[in-house]
Amino acid sequence: MSKEENFLTIKENGAAELVIKKSKFIANMARTTTTDEANEFIQEISKKYRDATHNTFAYTIGLNDDQVKASDNGEPSGTAGIPELKALQLMNLKNITVVVTRYFGGIKLGAGGLIRAYSNSVTNAVEKIGVVKRVLQQELIFSVPYNRFDEVDHYLKTNKVFIADTEYGVDIKIHIFLDIDDQEQTKKDLTNLLAGQISFTNGEKRYNELPVEQNNYHEQ
């Protein structure tokens, strides 16, 4: 398991609204890991806004965009769903469904205007909701004497390793989470720091979430 299993997604489910030439565009976004979840969300939002002119959507499921779908829902072909999907893909976002609802304001936007409107609706929603990096990490558990804790704590903070838990007994038991690829180097460093007087136990593997700065998606 490696960094290839890490991915970007939205921080939480959410929505954002844009008004373009009197048309209202409401982008609702949700984390979805299966097509069933995606379809349920699409149905939920379409029902909520059943009086809207259009409820267009796009989703991408899987770390390699394994399952994708887009719908224009009555807009001219290629002007809504596909731009929404491309917006998600350009931001490297995974396991997301977006439904962009449009209430027509009386002014036609033209094909180019529609493409920009639907694409910008997605980008705007992502920026308002926020992005996280879901990182597959391994829990590592080890104990250190009280008089060596400050050294270990300094090493972990310097290397931006998060201490998930500490237990105080005869020694201090420390729980940390590491990227899979960083595990061996950290073990080696701690072993050297404590002159070999340390042993490690693997705990659970889980996805942890790290915040991502806006406009920094392509570098992740």
Automatic annotation (TrEMBL):
InterPro entries: EFG_III/V, Impact, Impact_N, Impact_N_sf, Impact_YigZ-like, Ribosomal_Su5_D2-typ_SF, UPF0029_Impact_C
Alphabetized Gene3D superfamilies for the sequence: 3.30.70.240, Impact, N-terminal domain
Domain UPF0029: from-to ranges: 143-197
Span of domain Impact N-terminal: 21-126
Family matches, as Pfam families: DUF1949, Impact_N
Biological process annotations from GO: regulation of translational initiation
A GO-annotated cellular component: cytoplasm
SUPFAM superfamilies the record matches: EF-G C-terminal domain-like, Ribosomal protein S5 domain 2-like
Stated family: Belongs to the IMPACT family.
PANTHER family, per the entry: IMPACT FAMILY MEMBER YIGZ, IMPACT-RELATED
Name of the protein this chain belongs to: YigZ family protein
